[in-house]
Design brief:
By secondary structure, the protein is of the alpha/beta class. It has 14 helices and ten strands. It starts with a helix and ends with a helix.
């Protein structure tokens, strides 16, 4: 762990212990570290006079905003990076925060689920962990995009596997099909059943959200047309999490499009996963991000400052 990352973790421990009055066990569970490590951080802080009768640690606006989100929405962890005009800079900063989290919470032989799309592909390009972790990386959606295309399902999960250090399981079953009959056939396919069974072993899942509009990766791939978008809007859909259609309360909205989507990781299973990480930002994502954290659909959030402040308004 780099010095900067260690300092940030120490700060979170101190804030939870001295400000939020959490026990060492509660802090250990929240941050997915051992209680002994929590105790060592507290001892280190005392020895180096980071704490006396108050917390002597630099706090910036994002630290306070992260704490606000964690307390208000019951998140295990929130990381908020500065907002940049150049999206590549956002990818880089998000990747740094994600690497810090993954390096702490992942263990060898665990199963990590990865969604797909431009956001996760961009972050995966800059992801760099301090050490390789021998995990199993599996898809949580069917195949989307053209094989070999940068934001296709298999390309994204391979990227994450390469960066984290594990093996990956490609999927060749399409995520969206033409009919309910085709969906039933593919969901009964042995490859699909195998991936679905592997998803039951997930300890961590990394997701992104999308607005319900034509200006999205999957709409540009022809998955949805304007008629579909108008239909979803009429039902009160504000956005999409892992191809589940949610309203402003973060609840599922039943719709006819579901009849064409091959389900790999069901919506109700996401909450049961120990670490459910959501990575998204931008003005079009505010409504769906707010819906997801209000309804506790995920427990770790990575976003940028402008998006976070828009959510908190």
């Amino acid at each position: 762990m780099s010095a900067d990352k260690r300092r940030k973790t120490i700060y979170k421990v101190l804030r939870m212990y001295y400000v939020d009055n959490l026990t060492q066990n509660e802090i250990a569970n929240r941050l997915s570290i051992s209680r002994i490590k929590v105790a060592r951080y507290i001892y280190y802080a005392k020895a180096h006079k980071l704490v006396e009768t108050k917390l002597n640690f630099p706090i910036n606006e994002n630290d306070e905003l992260e704490t606000e989100f964690e307390n208000k929405y019951g998140l295990k962890e929130c990381r908020i990076v500065p907002s940049f005009e150049n999206i590549e800079d956002t990818y880089k900063y998000i990747a740094i925060e994600l690497a810090d989290i993954l390096g702490r919470i992942l263990n060898d032989d665990e199963y990590v689920g990865i969604s797909w799309g431009t956001t996760l592909e961009g972050v995966s390009r800059y992801l760099k962990l301090n050490k390789k972790i021998n995990v199993n990386v599996i898809p949580v959606t069917g195949a989307i995009g053209i094989q070999g295309q940068d934001n296709s399902t298999n390309f994204v999960i391979k990227n994450f596997a390469d960066k984290i250090g594990g093996r990956y399981y490609p999927i060749h079953i399409p995520n969206i099909v033409d009919s309910k009959k085709a969906k039933k056939i593919l969901e009964a396919d042995s490859q699909t059943r195998n991936i679905i069974e592997l998803n039951k072993k997930l300890s961590t899942v990394i997701l992104a959200v999308s607005a319900a509009s034509l200006d999205t990766s999957f709409s540009r791939l022809g998955a949805f047309n304007q008629k579909d978008i108008d239909y979803l809007d009429s039902l009160g859909v504000v956005g999409i999490l892992n191809f589940e259609f949610l309203n402003a309360a973060g609840e599922l909205v039943e719709n006819m499009i579901n009849d064409r989507i091959v389900r790999i990781l069901p919506f109700e299973s996401i909450r049961k996963i120990k670490n459910s990480i959501l990575i998204s930002w931008g003005p079009k994502k505010v409504e769906i991000l707010k819906a997801c954290i209000k309804n506790k659909n995920i427990n770790i959030l990575l976003t940028d400052e402008e998006t976070a402040r828009a959510i908190s308004c």
